[in-house]
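Table S4 entry, PLAT domain-containing protein.
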Amino acid sequence: IHFVLSGDSDTTHVRTFADPHRQIFQRGGIDSFIMAVPKSLGLLNCIRIWHDNSGQGSSSSWFLKYLIVRDLQTMEKFHFISQRWFAVEKEDGNIERVLPIASETEKQEFSYVLSKKSYHSVSDGHLWFSIFSRPPSTTFTRVQRCTCCFVLLFISMFLNIMYYDLSNEAKTDSASLSFDSFNINPQQMIIGIIVDVFALIPSLLLVQLFRRLRSRRQQISPLRQALYSIKSNLEIKKENKQKLARTFPWWYIFIAYALCIILVGVSIIFIIARGIEFGDEKTQK
């Protein structure tokens, strides 16, 4: 994938996106690159971007949502919104486009904001869906997400079976909803909401614990190194302190997994004990 960036003062030569250490432009990924220029380009106007259509099958198609260019000297951001396919067989068949700089109105458009927020919410924020659509850049692994899902599942089963008798004893009144042989009343709905809330609390705490774990080996990316090179030591120390205050040491991962094992183990024990107490007929219901 190649591009040419144009500004008021100058235009770059043809540049190619590349990283020798990892695979770039994976599905759902956000990639960062550093570009050096001999002199300032001034205020950016547009970017011309294209690919060589060299992939096999669907690999030759590329969907670009947006690009953000940041001037590391002024820290000013320039947004280029695409939301288009670069593919011969899709939309208008173009594999090359010129993207003008986005205005403030375009950056606030509902379709752009909704697409950006909704995709992030599902791919990284939704606990179940993110197992399959996890962004490559996050440190919250699929194994950790799956573990949190198991904790949520078993705690929900445990709380539901503990409150089973209470929900059945709730009296049916005129406000009940009936669907053939299935009845539900306000008391049962309240019990269900309470059970869901109590099931979510431990799983959400575990999710935050996993998300805030620091890497065992702190590797500074080239982009971070470039930012550090233009910042004062005071700014760097302040930024590091803020980051450390929001994260946990890497060895907290053992505490997180221990809590998961304890919660799942206790839930299984109570589920089995309660099932034996109910008997076969009641358990099958």
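The mean pLDDT is 79.
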